[in-house]
Structure formats: structure tokens, C-alpha cells
Amino acid sequence: MSLSEQEQRTLREIEQSLLAEDPKFGNRVPSGAGLAGPNGGGQLTMRSAALMIFGLALLIGGVALATVNVWLVALSVIGFAVMFAGGVMALKSPSRGPVVSGRPAPRVERSARTSKMEENFKRRFEGQ
């Protein structure tokens, strides 16, 4: 979900004030850098999805087989670690969307219904 123009403007103002307060920090952190990348998220690749599914199967298998032998609980722990590694891989992989540094995202045309819903939402919170 993209940010509204007002939210983008507020975010830019916060970024500019932070850079004005601490220019050394601004030199260390590239513009638009976030935890999951500049576009707000990584990309779920086939490899990361396969790791997460395999980890889930190990986790469930370890829980199911825990009644047979207590040492098979380690299989669940390994499954969780594999699942976690797949999730981290998905977050770290770069997204394929075009990145335009320093420019606002292209304006997306909205339908009349979406615009009306957005106006109603804004009106609801402006009155309070």
C-alpha cells in the first residue's frame, strides 16, 4: 500500500529535519534505507519459499514424532531455524521494482470509489 501525498510530505520533512540535526548520521545512512530495503520489502523467491515450507514440514514432523522419542524435538528446533532462515532470505533479497532515488513515486490513478472512500476516511478523523 502506497503512502498518501500528505504522508509522503511528512516523511520527507522528518527525514530532512533528522539530517539537519545530525549530518554525520545522514552520511552513514543512505537515503531511503529501511530495514527491508528502499521499497519497503524484499521479494519472496522460490528458494526462500521452499526453505520456509521445508522448515514448516520439519517443525510439524518434529512435534508429531516427539511422542516417539524426546530427542526428535530437536527436529522441530531445526525446522524453526530453517523457516527463520527462509524468512530472513526473503526480507534480504532485493525487490525487483524500479527504484527512483530522490523522486516521489509515480502517481497512480484511483477509481472514483477509492477516492470517495479516502475522502470519507479523512473527514472522519478531521472532525475529532
From TrEMBL:
Stretch forming the signal peptide: none
Basic and acidic residues composition-biased segments: 106-128
Keyword presence, Metal-binding: no
Domain of life, per lineage: Bacteria
Residue segments, region Disordered: 93-128
InterPro entries: DUF3040
Record's keyword terms, sorted: Membrane, Transmembrane, Transmembrane helix
Protein name: DUF3040 domain-containing protein
Lineage of producing organism: Bacteria, Bacillati, Actinomycetota, Actinomycetes, Mycobacteriales
